[in-house]
Amino acid sequence: QVILITGASGFIATHIVRDFLHAGYHVRGTVRSSATAELVRQSFSQFAPQLSLVIVNDMSKPGAFDEAVQGVQGVIHTASPFQVFNVEDNERDLLRPAIDGTINILTSVFTHAPEVKRVVITSSFAAMLDISKGSWPGHVYSEADWNMTPYEVAAAKGAPAGLAYSTAKALAEHAAWDFVKTNKPNFDIATIMPPMVYGPNINATANLAKLNTSSADIYRLVSYQTKSSDDVPQNMFWSFVDVRDVSTAHLRAYEVLEAGGERFFLCAGNFTYQRFVDALRERIPEIQDRVPIGNPGTGTVPSSVYTINNTKSQKILGIQYHKLEDTVVDAARSLLKLEGSL
Ligand code: NDP
């Protein structure tokens, strides 16, 4: 089978490409430039006969994926802007590409890829969050939750990029479910909703100066000049998952029959940065002098923070979540390797 994976150069998509190749599929990846295609090709050179790359440089354009989908049997749509810094225009940079990219891939599959039976879409916990509730004491987040922020609020001048990002993900996912309801295509969809995704960074385009948002979050923890306890960041966000589990979830959501028509909250649990730095200092002693100490052993998640229910992903997709310590340590190791320090 040939599987189309959009945004094949990304942090998460690289793991997904790898897992599908390992599982024996042929993968056709979309990227935005020939330079990126070359890097991705080189990084999977051992799978050369199974991997091809096509360039889709603007997925917001109608018909953008018409050629890319031809002859494929399955689609994994991960491409979407994930940035909260350097956003000049919420609509142009975040909302439109996320929403239009999703509608365009589904339209192309509907009109040009009759053999496709399932499309798996990378959504986000951002599509579930009710930002107005903050840490929402007592709430249990699950697939039943939806972020209800209206488009106009996120598109408004001066609206924070984080709000626009989360709204873009929610509206893109809504657009996907609406598409299926309205058009009743031959294929079904499944959506994957991860919170902050950490873990090994293995993408061919990784660049320490321009890391994807969640890897940058970990790199910051191993880049301190001082070890003052004040340097341990305050949590702005509480939930995490390992990139390897997110990738497995995409593969299983594609393969498992009962996953069709379902949303999956892919979440290992809640974290604190104190627990992250404790794990880093203990497990990678050679970087102790660049990781803040804080107050070791005090990193319990406050009881005022919402909790999560991830049972559906375990039951239907068979996910066995990585432990927090392994996720953060493997993430840091990969970044230190990129830096040349390990
Ligand atoms: P990356 O930034 O590493 O990957 C994003 C991918 O999408 C890249 O391949 C990028 O291409 C592509 N992309 C971005 N904007 C566009 C655009 N306008 N048109 C076409 N392609 C585009 O981030 P992640 O791997 O973290 O994100 C992948 C997916 O996972 C996204 O859908 C994101 O919303 C979702 N997600 C990520 C989380 C995380 O913590 N990392 C959490 C929850 C969801 P290029 O390489 O050319 O820039």
Structure description:
This protein is α/β, with parallel strands linked by helices and 342 residues long. The protein has helices at residues 11-22, 34-43, 90-112, 151-155, 161-183, 213-221, 243-255, 273-283, 311-317, 324-339; strands spanning 2-6, 26-31, 51-55, 74-77, 118-122, 140-141, 188-193, 196-198, 239-242, 263-265, 269-270, 307-308. The strands form 3 sheets. The protein has a 7-stranded parallel beta sheet with strand order 3-2-1-4-5-7-10, sandwiched between helices. The longest helix has 23 residues, at 90-112. The protein is globular, with a radius of gyration of 20 Å. It starts with a strand and ends with a helix. Bound molecules: NADPH dihydro-nicotinamide-adenine-dinucleotide phosphate. NADPH dihydro-nicotinamide-adenine-dinucleotide phosphate (NDP) is lined by residues 7, 9-13, 31-32, 36, 59, 78-82, 97, 122, 124, 169, 194, 196-197, 205, 212-214. Residues 3-260 form the NAD-dependent epimerase/dehydratase domain.
